[in-house]
Write a structure and sequence with these properties.
Strand content: 15-25%
Helix content: 25-40%
Strand order of the largest sheet: 1-2-3
Oligomer: single chain
Distance between the termini: 47 Å
Order of helices and strands: HEEEHH
Number of strands: 3
Radius of gyration: 15 Å
């Protein structure tokens, strides 16, 4: 991304799909997919992400993990009492 317009368009896409992709923007050779974790007030508290070496995985490969990353972030958000998050599953043990 090289313009403010590109950044705003990407942020809109991130919000709509619930996850962000890092296509070597932060570190050359590293890809990442991440999703936000919300606290009980609905504020972003942190995030959950996975990273991979670009030489081992392509962007399409990494995007296949996005639903699992989003699901994990929603589970943690629910456990923290985030508004609108599904009820947290009962913990075993």
């Amino acid at each position: 991304m090289t313009t403010p317009e590109d950044l705003l368009a990407d942020l809109a896409l991130v919000r709509s799909r619930g996850y962000a992709l890092d296509n070597e923007e932060n570190l050359p050779g590293i890809l990442c997919v991440g999703a936000p974790v919300f606290d009980h007030t609905g504020q972003v508290l942190g995030g959950i992400s996975i990273s991979a070496l670009a030489m081992d995985m392509g962007r399409d490969d990494l995007e296949r993990f996005a639903p699992d990353v989003v699901a994990a972030a929603r589970e943690v958000s629910a456990a923290l009492g985030a508004p609108g998050a599904p009820a947290a599953p009962a913990l075993n043990g």
